[in-house]
Amino acid sequence: METFESLVRAEFTPEKTYLNTASNGLLPVRTVTALDRAVRMRAEGRPLGPLYEDVEAVRACFARLAGVPAERVATGASVAEFGGLIAASLPAGAEVLTAEGDFSSLVNPFHARGDLKVRAVPLERLAESVRPGTALVAVSAAQSADGRLADLTAVREQARRHGARTYVDASQSAGWLPLEAGAYDFLAAVGFKWLLGPHGAAFLVVPEDFGGLTPLLAGWVAGEDPWLSCYGPVEELARSARRFDVSPALFTHAGLRASLELVEELGVDAIHAHDLALADRFRAGLAELGHQPVPAPGSAIVSVPGLGHRQPGLSEAGIEVSDRAGNLRASFHLYNTAADVDRLLEALSG
Questions:
Q1: Options 3.40.50.300, 2.40.50.140, 3.40.640.10, 3.40.47.10; CATH of 41-265
Q2: DSSP letter string over 160-201?
Q3: pTM, entire model
């Protein structure tokens, strides 16, 4: 019987100590194999039907991870794309509440409208800042810059109390933090970070009634029968969230299917426990070195103020982390080990 560790070791062969999943996840061996197969199909002129089947398999797999029916999941290319649809659904003058310094792909579509009232508050004050007249609360489950987790339960409760909708970006949490997408009006995530896929795929979970969204980007794939919707106006949009799909990046979905199957095989709960154990080991080691990370209990992302300048030297030493606004950001995922943590701590002690 294969264990968590044996499954992981069979899938990943990093040449460096890679602690930068918050930027890009590593590709499993099975994903590289799937990508190679997809490219060869195209090069050899074979029918591409299996690649379109991959798109639906990816949708179903993400739906299981998110805890919602596949009919509520749309696929696209970016979180910003979906944010644009949500922004377009709001009336002029509507208030959108966001967290200060949240990721631009989440917040910028609301600023780009030009006629919305976008209000930013500190993350820890987000729930208490919902007020009568707030139309939407948009927040990342885990902050990209420093890993802080939003109190999503409190945000949801306050939003409901004041009649506001909720929009959660799970790009920095999907794959290691269990999802409850059905608890929010909208939830989006990219596939190339903690979900271990190639670039070019993102997901949006919508309510059963579509939450007032208009399929502004609808093309042939958004039709109830895509292959009968190739010419002229689409006569019937998909009766599911697929009406919000854009033409899929087939190679990306071929690889992402393999990646998501691995995440399911390992189990998000097991990944969560593994990742947090490593992050907590790093936090403890930092304390011994006299460093204080940004408080982010329960997060797989650890950000250390004042150490961002060490990133180039660490990279030269074979340790990949990020420099975010002067902070050193390390992110720990399923392919990392205690030895990886200790190597980073040893490098920082020098």
A1: 3.40.640.10
A2: HHHT-EEEEE-TTTTTTS---GGGSSEEEEESSSTT---SS-
A3: 0.96
